[in-house]
Design brief:
Blueprint (H helix, E strand, L loop, with lengths): L2 H16 L2 H7 L4 H16 L12 H23 L2 H8 L2 H11 L9 H16 L6 H21 L7 H19 L11 H29 L1 H7 L2 H14 L5 H16 L13
């Protein structure tokens, strides 16, 4: 299989697994910090035997990746709890816009056709934040900040590190657990979890942030962070659909319009052009 196609397939598989997050977070009867800690602990324990401790070398890039990852995981669960799943995921998936602006600041050559899709994404953000029903303005703004953090994660995942991908996933989740234990120990409460709740946490830990990030790492390195952020549009499509089907949560009309505008802007970026790829890396 061609390198690019293989990379796209990896990212698609990761997005399908990622998209189950909104559903299980809504279904598990526990607060955001408990869910975040629980799934990270499970993922960390699974990959613990594979961590190459002797090869760990701290760098600015890896530290940025770890903390951006922790922010994304914590904030996604919080925003999914306090706003609609559709708003939480589509605002997080504005990562292509922030990566575009970052490349622009760095002085990368960007073709003019790249401006229009980003304008649609920006317009969609305004529409969602202006929508009065369905969501929560604080939750929406928090989800928007998660889009920036998600862009940081994708950007630094593209780098090569001296440790294996399984080591990265294990360490990231262990650090996430330690941060929650230090900053929010009193927020953890597993006492009310049912068997279904524990089953949901196990699924989230093993597949939704465990296997998914392992596959995503492989994909990003094959097609670049920018292209991976575009393929990631599959997640904001599947996530709210699963929540609507199994939970019955319907976003407001304004949110749906903003969702459609952002999605249209992201889709525009994958339309082939004779002018080239848009960003020369």
């Amino acid at each position: 299989m061609e390198k690019t196609n293989k990379g796209i397939l990896y990212v698609v598989i990761a997005m399908v697994l990622f998209s189950t997050g909104g559903l299980f977070i809504k279904l598990i009867d526990a607060n955001a910090y408990t869910i975040t800690f629980g799934r990270a602990l499970i993922a960390g324990l699974i990959f613990l035997p594979f961590i190459q401790w002797q090869k760990i070398k701290l760098s600015k890039a890896y530290v940025a990746l770890v903390f951006a990852y922790c922010y994304v995981c914590i904030v996604f669960v919080i925003t999914t709890k306090i706003t609609t799943a559709a708003n939480a995921i589509i605002l997080q998936c504005t990562a292509p816009l922030w990566l575009y602006l970052f490349y622009l600041i760095k002085g990368k050559k960007i073709k003019s056709r790249e401006f229009i899709p980003r304008a649609f994404i920006f317009l969609g953000i305004i529409v969602i934040l202006s929508a009065s029903g369905g969501g929560n303005i604080f939750g929406d703004l928090l989800a928007l900040s998660n889009g920036i953090a998600y862009a940081v994660v994708q950007y630094f995942m593209e780098r090569d590190y001296p440790i294996s991908d399984r080591s990265i996933i294990g360490i990231n989740n262990i650090v996430l657990c330690l941060l929650i234990l230090v900053l929010m120990p009193n927020s953890l409460d597993f006492s009310g979890l049912s068997i279904q709740g524990w089953s949901g946490l196990i699924f989230l830990g093993v597949f939704q942030i465990g296997v998914s990030y392992l596959v995503f790492l492989k994909g990003v390195r094959l097609i670049s962070a920018f292209k991976a952020s575009i393929v990631s549009l599959l997640e904001p499509v599947l996530n709210p659909i699963l929540v609507f089907v199994f939970v019955g949560e319907m976003p407001s009309v304004g949110s749906l319009i903003g969702f459609a505008v952002i999605l249209f802007g992201i889709i525009l970026t994958v339309i082939p052009s004779k002018l080239g790829e848009g960003i020369e890396e």
